[in-house]
């Protein structure tokens, strides 16, 4: 795997502007992929639980059809998709050495979109749990719904914390090799969360309204 | 885009930018299609579930290709195998869970 000029690992490579960091990236990026895949397994089990509970576990509580409001789900989808694109711009700014300012700018835009997503999600949860009387303990469907969707939300929130930590590191160390490698892993994490969201908006919200 | 970049790297930068833009536009179209199908009630019942599943699967592949840069190139094989193996495990767990629980439910 060593003597080749191809990118050594998938994802946004640093080949163009920083050959040394590019070589150092291979093991840490592959290791992070292993984490991402194990994280995906966690979501898969939550999805499976939800699939069973959403049809058999509604009890007397409101079901998906009465509860879900697709308008805010659509806005959340657009916010997260936009943030995936802006993080791509941050990765490009880093790859092509356009300076820490450009990287931080695009990451701030990404972070704001991500925070907007979380804001809408929290307001959805409030709407469901408090206003419409459908808290997690009301039925098996609701327990598994909040477990799945909030686990995703928690991931987004921790990615935002990670982003803030990266801003501090950029301010202190500049775009050093270690900082670049950490931003690359954050980028993979962020893109993967959007993949999980595609599953959530399709299999939870759209399926719930159609059924 | 940047004065310090050589023409070759500049071309690579434009190519990468185009990749992200194509991915973003495709993902946007696929998401919109899924929501419009449900909003307009274009298809119903099991057909709707099938169409939505296909749209989601295509969108996930688009995300992996354009944003996570997973391809069929030799240098990407390790990661591709890792992802495909995970997909197998995920499919076994999800399909198995749903199968068993639906079966159990139909007996109650």
UniProtKB/TrEMBL annotation, chain A:
A Pfam family annotated for this UniProt entry: COX3
Subunit architecture: Heterooctamer of two A chains, two B chains, two C chains and two D chains.
Official protein name in the record: Cytochrome bo(3) ubiquinol oxidase subunit 3
Record key words, sorted: Cell membrane, Membrane, Transmembrane, Transmembrane helix
GO terms for cellular component: plasma membrane
One Gene Ontology molecular-function label: cytochrome-c oxidase activity
Domain Heme-copper oxidase subunit III family profile: 1-209
InterPro entries: Cyt_c/ubiquinol_Oxase_su3, Cyt_c_oxidase-like_su3, Cyt_c_oxidase_su3-like_sf, Cyt_c_oxidase_su3_a-hlx
Automatic annotation (TrEMBL), chain B:
GO biological process terms held by the UniProt record: aerobic electron transport chain; electron transport coupled proton transport
Chief place of localization: membrane
An example Gene Ontology CC term for this record: plasma membrane
Compartments (UniProt record): Cell membrane
Gene Ontology molecular function terms on file: cytochrome bo3 ubiquinol oxidase activity; proton transmembrane transporter activity
InterPro entries cross-referenced by the UniProt entry: Cyt_c_oxidase_su4_prok, Cyt_o_ubiqinol_oxidase_su4, Cytochrome_c_oxidase_bac_sub4
Keyword terms, alphabetized: Cell membrane, Electron transport, Membrane, Oxidoreductase, Transmembrane, Transmembrane helix, Transport
Transmembrane regions listed in the UniProt entry: 21-42, 48-68, 80-102
Topology within the bilayer: Multi-pass membrane protein
Role summary: Cytochrome bo(3) ubiquinol terminal oxidase is the component of the aerobic respiratory chain of E.coli that predominates when cells are grown at high aeration. Has proton pump activity across the membrane in addition to electron transfer, pumping 2 protons/electron.
UniProt similarity note: Belongs to the cytochrome c oxidase bacterial subunit 4 family.
Xref: NCBIfam families: CyoD
SUBUNIT field: Heterooctamer of two A chains, two B chains, two C chains and two D chains.
Protein name per Swiss-Prot or TrEMBL: Cytochrome bo(3) ubiquinol oxidase subunit 4
Organism (species): Rhodalgimonas zhirmunskyi
Gene from which the chain derives: cyoD
